[in-house]
Amino acid sequence: MAKHSFDLHPLSAVLGATMISILAVFLWLAFTPHLPSFQVTSVNVTSLSTTTGGELTATFHVDGALGNPNFLLSHRYESLDIALWFDHRNISSAPVEPLPFSTGAETDTPVRARFAVARKLFPGGVVRGIAEQRGRGSVDFGVTLLARLRFTWGIVRTGVRTLTVECFPLHVVFPPDNNYTGSGLLKLSWLELMEGSLWYPTESLKPKLKRFST
After folding, report:
1. 127-133, long-range: CB within 8 Å, 24+ apart, which pairs?
2. Nearest 5°: phi and psi at 174?
3. Distances (CA, A) of 73 to 21, 24, 133, 157, 188
4. How confident is the model over 117-145, as a mean pLDDT?
5. What global pTM score does this model have?
6. Bridge partners of 45?
């Protein structure tokens, strides 16, 4: 009876190449750095008042969420600032402290900033625009996040990168009988869309601009 022998070397080579390809894809997915996400969750404006001379007084409370979509990599923030603006003019800004701090992989981290202006002089068009919009019931502010961060994994870390994210428009609503001084709150309309542990607001609150550079 004839005996047949099978050469397993080609099959082993194919299996080995397949395993190496799967491992390479996994490592690529796990260690490819992804940008942080930033979403504004709350804006509270108190004691807002304007003058015909172009002076603005107000206190701003901004809350947001930093998302880390990476599977293994953490984000280490060396600096983090939040600025509030109107009509492309910066109103005020403040650092998020304490620094530095890290956000773990696949996490959502709350951040907040508090800042105020007292009789600060702006170009007439800025203050007039705020007063006119408030008279109509709401003011469209914008928020910018400025960050310097690294990607880290254990003791391994990259160089410092810079990130800028802008969120606009943010509709801060004021009561109709509150025409001179008082408070305004960000009008939110949440969509119950969940991806991992991150909840995303409506399209108007998602970042309109992202820049990422070394």
Report:
1. 127/50, 127/51, 127/54, 127/55, 127/56, 128/50, 128/54, 129/86, 129/87, 130/48, 130/50, 130/56, 130/86, 131/50
2. -115, 140
3. 22, 17, 43, 9, 31
4. 91
5. 0.72
6. 60, 184
Q: Is 180 left (phi over 0), alpha (psi -120 to 50) or beta?
A: alpha
Structure tokens that stand for 117 in this block: 């202006």
Mean pLDDT of 2-13: 60
**Cβ atoms of residues 89 and 59 within 8 Å:** no
Residue bearing tokens 């702006």: 122
Count CB atoms within 10 A of the CB of residue 162.
Answer: 14
Return the minimum-mean-pLDDT range out of 29-38, 72-81, 191-200: 191-200
pLDDT over 80 at 207, yes or no = no
Residue at 210: amino acid letter: K
CA distances from 185 to 137, 139, 154, 206 (A): 11, 10, 41, 18
Is there a contact between 81 and 94 (Cβ–Cβ < 8 Å)? yes
